[in-house]
Amino acid sequence: MNAYLRARSAAAVVVTAGLCLVATACTNSGSSDSASSQNPQSGATNSAAEQKIASSAAAGPACTSATYAGGVPKLDITDGKTVVGFSQSESTSNPFRATETASITAEAKKLHVKLIQRNANADVNAQNSQIEDMIAQGAKVLVVAPENSDGLGPALAQAKAKKIPVLTIDRTAGGTACTDFMSFVGSDFYGQAGIAADDLATATGKKAQVAILSGTPGNNVTTDRTKGFQDRIRSTYPDVKVVASQTANFDQTDGQKVMEQLLQAHPGINAVYAENDEMALGALQAVRSAGKTPGKDVKVVSIDGIKQVVQDVSGGQVVADIETNPRFGPLAFQALQDFYGTKGVQAKVIIQDGHFTAKNAKQALDQGLVY
Ligand code: GZL
Question: Which atom of ligand 1 approaches the CA of 187 most closely?
């Protein structure tokens, strides 16, 4: 089991016992005592396949309510009266979204934060109007999981005009940190993709015809996961060829349809890189419908770490699943408290992700470390 999962496993045991003896491990996000500090490297990586997603952050002055966009009112978000609005981008039918929403909601409850929330169901226009609606309902701080990196201009402009600070999680929004939003809290998507490339190259003997199922266009997750994979392949694996790359919008149904088309157009495909698990589930169905065996005829690597796919890793149908840790609650509300305190919050806070492979998937599932 890799170092990160060992730490999470300890957390699972400690938190189950109701004691948080090792603060670092207990937030599950891998952060240490504050959102603005970096996730500790909780131990050397065992191997390329076991390496954790490194944590990093833009150095520089931390952002506070005094410095944000020329200064905004200093608030106590735990006073039970200050309204915090949470804008979720996509349906909670995706376990990533369900876990993200549950984490934000649970931490708000724990801190007695008065939380209101909306879900845009992957519609950028809906997300704009929902954010404006929450402002009208009295939200004084916003936590936003953007659907697209651009497209939220109207809502963010209204928030800025009303001196309502915005924390972005999971995907970035356009603009400048500490001017248009406080900070970005999320995964290292480029790093995730490099590990996916290593896993797929290793599983195919460094010789493969790869199909990429890319995410929704227009957000940094898709951009970074696509570039990170292609950069790694081009720099390290000359005989791993990307023969097709097409969006399936982070969606399972689209993933199956697109994969069926790609397998017909490119019968030599023997490897798939899915930029999220929903699409990977669709691709697995397409591979089976084509009379091929996942894990044997076609090697699949994916990203997110949802239970159903980690079970496929354990069963040999999927080579590896790099986690996108959606447990933003502790980091997000710590960031808000640091923002209103003196510590401030860094422009970028990278949440620590796990990495599920044949070596650790079953143990991670048995230990309840998979969402
Ligand atoms: C990543 C998040 C991505 C997930 C997908 O932070 O934005 O969007 O990886 C989801 O499952 O659709």
Answer: 6
Residue 365 has which token pair? Answer: 């599932």
346 Cβ closer than 6 Å to some ligand 1 atom: no
pLDDT per position as a tens digit, 149-168: 899 999 999 999 999 999 99
Q: Is it the case that residue 57 has pLDDT exceeding 50?
A: yes
Query: Which of 225, 276, 310 best tests ligand 1's pocket when mutated (most atoms within 8 Å of CB)?
Result: 276
Give the pLDDT score at 254. Answer: 98
CB atoms closer than 10 angstroms to residue 6: 16
pLDDT at 319 over 50: yes
Q: Is 27 a residue whose pLDDT tops 50? A: no
Nearest alpha-carbon partner for 201 in 189, 209, 212: 209
Q: What spacing in Å lies between the alpha carbon of 216 and ligand 1's midpoint?
A: 9
Residue written as token pair 């997750």: 221
Question: What is the rounded CA–CA span in Å between residue 248 and residue 254?
Answer: 5
DSSP 3-state of 169: strand
Average pLDDT of the residues in 336-353: 96
Give per-residue pLDDT as tens, 175-184. 999 999 999 9
Query: Beta partners for 242?
Result: 210
152 close to ligand 1 (CB < 6 Angstrom)? no
Superfamily of domain 189-323: Response regulator (3.40.50.2300)
Tokens at 185, concatenated:
């809290």
Return the closest-CA partner of residue 204 out of 273, 270, 277, 266.
270
Q: Is the CB of 171 under 6 A from ligand 1?
A: yes
As annotated, the residues of the chain forming the CATH 3.40.50.2300 domain(s) are 69-187, 189-323
Name the residue with the closest Cα to ligand 1, atom 6: 170
User: Is 3.40.50.300 the CATH number for 69-187?
Assistant: no
Residue 335 corresponds to which amino acid?
Answer: A
In which band, very low, low, confident or very high, does the pLDDT at 52 lie, cut at 50, 70 and 90?
very low
Q: Using most ligand atoms within 8 A of CB, pick from 121, 220, 224, 250 the residue to mutate for ligand 1.
A: 250
Q: Order across the sheet with 114-119: list the strands.
A: 114-119, 83-88, 139-144, 166-169, 184-186, 348-350
* Rounded distance between C-alpha atoms, residue 230 and residue 241, angstroms: 10
pLDDT of res. 147? 97
